[in-house]
UniProtKB/TrEMBL annotation:
Residues 84-94 have a biased composition (Basic residues). This is Uncharacterized protein. Residues 1-31, 67-94 are annotated as: Disordered. The lineage of its organism: Bacteria, Pseudomonadati, Pseudomonadota, Alphaproteobacteria, Hyphomicrobiales. It comes from Bradyrhizobium diversitatis.
Length: 94
């Protein structure tokens, strides 16, 4: 008979994860956003920070960061990425 997933060696269930390794890390889900949190979100979005890193720095779920950014009108799209269909003039000449 197969072992349960949580009993398998190397199973991530119940052992790994940021909250297990570091108990001080706590997700603040469902807590109200402060003005400092919103300004930190704006600063991280301006620096093209990925949402996964934002979630660790703000200690909130990725979905909460995306929804708050949408409500505040903050774009999480990287500004340094060019559109896929655009080519430079030098690339067209070759």
């Amino acid at each position: 008979m197969a072992k349960s997933a949580w009993k398998r060696p190397g199973s991530p269930i119940g052992r790994k994860g940021p909250r297990k390794a570091n108990p001080a890390y706590k997700r603040r889900a469902r807590e109200p956003w402060t003005a400092a949190d919103v300004s930190k979100l704006k600063q991280l979005a301006k620096g093209n920070t990925p949402t996964g890193v934002m979630s660790i720095k703000l200690q909130r779920p990725v979905a909460a960061i995306r929804s708050k950014a949408q409500r505040e009108g903050i774009s999480l799209r990287p500004v340094n990425r060019s559109p896929y269909s655009r080519r430079t003039k030098a690339a067209k000449r070759r």
